[in-house]
Amino acid sequence: MPISGAVRAGDFVFASGQAALDKDGYVLDGGIVPQTRLTLDRLLASLKDAGCTAEDIVKVTVWLDDARDFGAFNKVYAEYFKDAPPARSTLVSPLVVDAKVEIEAIAYRPV
Predict the structure, then answer these.
(1) Strand order in the sheet with 12-19
(2) Residue 1 located in a structural domain
(3) Number of structural domains in the chain
(4) What is the pTM of this model?
């Protein structure tokens, strides 16, 4: 796939949008809760590969396929960002893959 998981630009790391794709590239079944968990785990793994942690994230953009999933999504999201959540934008939009959520992030970690 012609995409980088995360790219460093100076002290910033830009993580590509992640969705709930399993190891074979298929969208995880089960709805918004397990899809949110897998999406966030994949996002954090991309950032880890670039030397960052969840604490380094300063901005997150979220796309939900269905606005009715916002409450359940938000509960899972809160588990990952308890103490100092990053700035966040949440939009409703159809997704390129048949998933319920896509998440991208910007992290700040001085070189």
Answers:
(1) 6-9, 12-19, 101-108, 57-64, 87-92
(2) no
(3) 1
(4) 0.95
